[in-house]
Amino acid sequence: xxxxxxxxxxxxxxxxxxxxxxxxxxxxxxxxxxxxxxxxxxxxxxxxxxxxxxxxxxxxxxxxxxxxxxxxxxxxxxxxxxxxxxxxxxxxxxxxxxxxxxxxxxxxxxxxxxxxxxxxxxxxxxxxxxxxxxxxxxxxxxxxxxxxxxxxxxxxxxxxxxxxxxxxxxxxxxxxxxxxxxxxxxxxxxxxxxxxxxxxxxxxxxxxxxxxxxxxxxxxxxxxxxxxxxxxxxxxxxxxxxxxxxxxxxxxxxxxxxxxxxxxxxxxxxxxxxxxxxxxxxxxxxxxxxxxxxxxxxxxxxxxxxxxxxxxxxxxxxxxxxxxxxxxxxxxxxxxxxxxxxxxxxxxxxxxxxxxxxxxxxxxxxxxxxxxxxxxxxxxxxxxxxxxxxxxxxxxxxxxxxxxxxxxxxxxxx
Length: 414
Ligand code: RNT
Ligand code: ZN
Hints:
14 helices, binds zinc ion, about 45% helix, about 15% strand, TIM Barrel, alpha/beta, binds L-rhamnitol
């Protein structure tokens, strides 16, 4: 408390009210991806192997194998994360009671247990159709497939998933982001680059034909997938243009899905000039789309700053997307989510209006000096106070709870 008071006084001199900042921070929802808990395995496949050009590497013990285990692990993580949370599910996390159905026949009832769990844990739910790890996606072609029957199967899946997202929104009284990422692409230089994109466009038109209340539809581009290096059907230009020409469909930015020197912190304000919603997948690419755990690094801080200073807190929908199987998976959730929140806090503690004014006056010397000064302000003291008020363990203490959980629960899983 003493450290908080002293830090708060320092920030006050910058014109920042830390009480107001903490009030804002606790209401910014961060959507936590369920798939970090089991290496994107899901509950449906017998062998559960991950396909589609993405990869989770590592074999740290204790991975969740059932809905009950995944929910328990998520609850542990939630108890160590302050603020407002959502959980992001994938279609392959459907819970079947007896009768199993294929992905094109999924219904809200297959997610009723998740809804019940979400209500109990006071979280909203986001959703993703799963266009990978399935026999009909064995050649990494789904919505752009040249075979009409396979394409129709995936279109039905896309429609079914949007209805599930609408069910989440209705049941939980909170919008549900429904994100479509497809693996479609080719390993070798294609003979036809336009055809697959025209087929994808047609598939998306069918999927999004009916407007569904409470659903925030989005499409996610990428540069390439493993084994699909030459060509990606759903490229950035393709989806940006699709979203721009289809009101109500948004372009999701995953910061692992661009060329290594491109940054989404710069794309955010570009898109905010045109879109009223920007869904995000925050991850950490290491040389490629490697989906490492989110750290409190410069780009994360820059992303948070753009969200805050562009007045984007209502427009940017923050979700996480990484999967590291080489460390304790619950810890990975906690580290990444808390880091996203720390970056937001740091952004809220900067005097953006003042810095903008210095830029507009052309006073770049002073701007540089002052921004560097703020970097060593006592933001950790504000963070500790925030955690205490939220009733979650602080930076020095939370890991002990992970160790206990590992010893008592995770290490007993076969
Ligand atoms: C893949 C995309 C996609 C997935 C999840 C599991 O490159 O980032 O968002 O990571 O849907
Ligand atoms: Zn993603």
